[in-house]
TrEMBL record:
The keyword Protein biosynthesis is assigned to this record: no
Protein name in the entry: Mitochondrial import receptor subunit TOM70
Domain of life: Eukaryota
Region (Disordered): 73-108
Biological process per Gene Ontology, one example term: protein insertion into mitochondrial inner membrane
Record organism: Bucorvus abyssinicus
């Protein structure tokens, strides 16, 4: 799961206020030391936000209707290895006649069937070369107008080639079978597997998409292949695109929300009295002169004026001059590199601050938090945990360390440790509404995933206590709304989102969540889309809104519109991992358009 509003770590609920996607997830990311694959965690696109329901696999995040079929019971991971048709003791060529007098000579189709049956017998005995000979004879004997029989013979020969790992021949024979029988699931899936082996990912995805639709998303094996190919395609495209992307500064609201998640961050504090003059900024919008000739202090002035594009260059001047605020400038520059999605540029600056033993300990701790968050974004939880632990060691009275480490622990499903960290944050800073709200969320998540109604009730009461104690904390209402949605208390959840909007009318992600709620609660597509459109109007750089709208458009059958929305989100992605996820969604939508053109197959729409 990932946070749409978090520049440093889409894998954490914060830094950057609440994590809009983590709250919808029911399982953690993989813990340190875990292996890859389908074990402890779910990839981002394995969590369906639309209608608030989890879906098994990535392809399902776009094929929402597949979850309805899944409720009726799936086929599991059944294999498709055997050829079709029963084996019989007839000769391979089938050229003879049935035993006994009085029988008429067999037809060409009968002889072809006899050859196929003999091929099946060889196949089951593991004699694949002989099986291929028999299937080839069946193909040559079969009348050309017998499309279904011919398609079976080609598919059976492909199955034998598959056992010999002759992938080009497998793909060729499956293509013949599909040309004769366009909705032939076995042939489509076998060709998809051959394309996977031949590294033809696009073709593999189209075939497995057709299979998923034809099987109503009830076969785990085809869903797993779709998920695997989507991930590979997404990673490949994101790696190339992200390397050449133009840096993009997030919206002012996003940046302010990000910094508001820190209470001990020196670089986000206002300029001290005496550091700047009382002059107004000039007509060209340049910052007023500061008392010292310091690039860092000018950068801070620009920050107060929300003139964020000039912060990196001014910080660089301080660094190159080796000025008195060099450590602060390094941290400020690294932070804005992270905000524009340039982790490679941010890391050397963070490393340097962390190694400066004579620097203010709060600067070093803050750099460790940000580097740890960056590692988590890059799915390196061991390194992330080490940085957070080091931050706690060097600055044990820093509430930010425990706040952000608590969120890391939630993602790693270490709920008890997360609660301990939130408690320590609250002890150090009793007025931390964010920490109290997120502690409630941790306890709720623990209770909800454990299916114990009593702790759930206790956690829900905890949310009530938090919003009563901190009525101005939008975070408390947002997290409570997520929990209420889980409990299908939709009306009250809607009220909580309204409270959020009253407190933070420029927070685009709240409108997205309220829009999603309308879909789940009232199946009101128009209202849902209206709210998500409002989110884009408020913040046209809100990738979460474009992504969500794209997902809804897929479910409405508007695939071209969906692809347009996903591409907008891709251009706004704040990390390579985020971009890979979005490419996966876009590729899945595109595959559906190709399948619709080729085979006339479309999943039912909302």
């Amino acid at each position: 799961p990932a946070c749409p509003g978090c520049p440093v770590t889409p894998s954490l609920p914060s830094p950057g206020r609440r994590c809009e996607r983590v709250m919808a997830a029911s399982k953690p990311v993989e813990a340190p030391g875990g292996g890859g694959g389908g074990g402890a965690g779910l990839s981002r696109w394995q969590v369906a936000l639309v209608l608030g329901a989890p879906i098994l696999l990535g392809a399902g995040a776009l094929y929402l209707w597949g979850r309805r079929a899944a409720r009726r019971g799936g086929k599991g991971a059944s294999e498709r290895k055997t050829p079709e048709g029963r084996a019989s003791p007839g000769p391979c060529g089938g050229g003879g006649q049935p035993d006994g007098p009085g029988h008429e000579e067999t037809s060409p189709l009968d002889r072809a069937q006899a050859a196929k049956n003999k091929g099946n017998k060889y196949f089951k005995a593991g004699k694949y070369e002989q099986a291929i000979q028999c299937y080839t004879e069946a193909i040559s004997l079969c009348p050309p107008e017998k499309n279904l029989d011919l398609s079976t013979f080609y598919q059976n020969r492909a199955a034998a080639y598959e056992q010999l790992q002759k992938w080009t021949e497998v793909a060729q024979d499956c293509t013949k079978a599909v040309e004769l029988n366009p909705k032939y699931v076995k042939a489509l899936f076998r060709r998809a597997k051959a394309h996977e082996k031949l590294d033809n990912k696009k073709e593999c995805l189209e075939d497995v998409t057709a299979v998923c639709i034809l099987e109503a998303f009830q076969n785990q094996q085809s869903m797993l292949l779709a998920d695997k190919v989507l991930k590979l395609l997404g990673k490949e495209k994101a790696k190339e695109k992200y390397k050449n992307r133009e840096p993009l500064m997030p919206s002012p609201q996003f940046i302010k929300s990000y910094f508001s998640s820190f209470t001990d961050d020196i670089i986000s504090q206002p300029l001290l009295k005496g550091e700047k003059s009382d002059e107004d900024k000039d007509k060209e919008g340049e910052a007023s002169e500061v008392k010292e000739n310091s690039g860092y202090l000018r950068a801070k002035q620009y920050m107060e004026e929300e003139n964020y594009d000039k912060i990196i260059s001014e910080s660089t001047k301080e660094i190159e001059a080796k000025g008195k605020y060099m450590a602060e400038a390094l941290l400020l520059r690294a932070t804005f590199y992270l905000l524009i999605g340039n982790a490679n540029a941010a890391k050397p600056d963070l490393d340097q601050v962390i190694s400066m033993e004579d620097a203010n300990v709060k600067l070093r701790a803050n750099a460790l938090i940000k580097r740890g968050s960056m590692y988590m974004q890059q799915q390196q939880p061991v390194l992330s945990t080490q940085d957070f632990n080091m931050a706690a060691d060097i600055d044990p009275q820093n509430a930010d360390v425990y706040h952000h480490r608590g969120q890391l622990k939630i993602l790693l499903d270490q709920i008890e440790e997360a609660v301990e960290d939130f408690d320590e944050c609250i002890r150090l800073r009793p007025d931390s509404a964010l920490a109290q709200a997120q502690k409630c969320f941790a306890l709720y998540r623990q209770a909800y995933t454990g299916n114990n109604p009593l702790p759930v009730q206790v956690a829900m009461k905890g949310f009530e206590d938090v919003i009563k104690k901190f009525p101005k904390c939008a975070e408390g209402y947002a997290l409570y709304a997520q929990a209420l949605t889980d409990q299908q208390q939709f009306g009250k959840a809607d009220e909580m989102y309204d409270k959020c909007i009253d407190l933070e009318p420029d927070n685009a992600t709240t409108y997205v969540h309220k829009g999603l709620l309308q879909l789940q609660w009232k199946q009101d597509l128009d209202k849902g889309l209206e709210l998500i459109s409002k989110a884009i109007e408020i913040d046209n750089k809100c990738d979460f809104a474009y992504e969500t709208m794209g997902t809804i458009e897929v479910q409405r059958g508007n695939l071209d519109k969906a692809i347009e929305m996903f591409n907008k989100a891709i251009n706004l992605a704040k990390s390579e991992m985020e971009m890979a996820h979005l490419y996966s969604l876009c590729d899945a939508a595109y595959a559906q358009t190709e399948v619709a053109k080729k085979y006339g197959l479309k999943p039912p729409t909302l």
